[in-house]
Batch of 3 targets.
Target 1
Amino acid sequence: MAKKEKEAKGKADKKDKKGKKGKGGETTQGGSIAGHARAKASIRRTKGWAGLAGFAIAAFVSVQASVPMFQAGLRALGAGVVGYMLAWWVGVLVWRQLILAEQKAAYEIIERRRSEDAEPAGGEKPRTPQPTA
């Protein structure tokens, strides 16, 4: 019985070590699109609409050109995938710049507040009390 328990414990330890290997307190400096809620939602929505638009346009054009239905469907699927991928690429490019602009604006606000806190109110030098005789 003790031997089986040791083997089971050894296997559990190996599983724990494998699970912890790539995970942990790895943080990246700066913003990430994957961690930005608005960016994720916007890119997801854009990909969906672009895929549907590519599909619909290609299907319409193919049917108008009297292409057989099977080929029209294949063309529509291909155009939908291309639209989806292009929307993903453009969305990532746009949101990368937006996130950098947001970070720059936040940094400037922080610096402005620090400089305001450093200088006294009214922009004058503080007076030292004069001794009265």
Target 2
Amino acid sequence: MPSVIIFMKRNYLILFVLLLLILGALLFWRNKEVAPKVATTATSTSGILNFYECVAAGFPTTPGYPRECQVPNGAAFIEDLVPNNGNLPPAATSTTHSSSVTSYKDLVRLDNLNPNDLIKSPFILKGEARGSWFFEGSFPVEILDSNGNIIGRGIAKATSDWMTSNYVPFTVTVTFKNNSPINRGFLVIRKDNPSGDPSRDDSWRLPVSFN
């Protein structure tokens, strides 16, 4: 009888060891399969070299300014007011765009302005906005200096029927004078919100350079 018990214990021990070996093998192969997936993800985003390429690829940005765009499993890029190693783009860049080149939330898109473009007063802004962005066919536009002071205001006017959910063309002329020694600031496009409800507020702030 004791020999039978010893035999059974030995079988249980062998079975336990086999189960441990099988579990270890499964964990080994699982880790081996995960590694290539991480490498593949990093490789697919390795072509992104700056903040704007990161945003264009659809990756999220942090609130506030300067914003930060994080590439999954990759680098984080910080928004810069002055591109091209600190060299301001020529003034012509703010007037030579012939199609919508930049957009916000599928709500507003601009024909003649990109982030960090150089603008001069008076500046004529053209683009399109969803009908919901307007009230009575208009919405406010502001220009701020580097300290956040308003140095110019304008009212964008719809050039066609704004009572629609589709895009509506608009134009606005803003005259401004920058008294700050820093020739950089922001152009702010604000949704018209006559309700006064803060939850319905929305705005688009683009960094710009001044002539």
Target 3
Amino acid sequence: MHIEEYIKNKRDAFDSHRPDKEKIWKGIQTKRKSQKQSGSFLWKAAAVFFLITSLALAFGLWQHQQKNEYLLAHISPALLKQEKSYIHNISIKYLEAESFAQKSSINFAPYQKELDEIDLEYKDYISDLGQNCCNEELVQILMDYYEKKIRLLNRILFEIQKQNEYEKQEQTIEA
């Protein structure tokens, strides 16, 4: 019985392995700060990258539009409104498709290749337009180009959205 009393009296001396509350709390705070800083840095970097990319794309589209702005309007003022509408729709759909592709894991390069091929045809038509200014058949071909590009961009948007939905379904199945 003498040992039990000794243990009760010296209990504080035996409990030498108590955690240091201040040290633990400081460790938690430093980990939280480092996680908070690294996470916010990545979001900031992603936001800056997205902003720069968007501005560069908008500038590129604006510059492209300035170079080739309203070519058919020189032939017939009645075509100006229709051509403006086509160019505006193409710009919006292109930005939307690129934005969706950036937000997901989809590679936009194959889609860009298709768009570039159509643009090469367009450049050929434009050079023909310079040589043969008032050819109605050529004007109709250029209008068809705009419609074809809008259809292609709609198809690209559909494919990107379909891929995003598939990826979401895969993630929910895995979870």
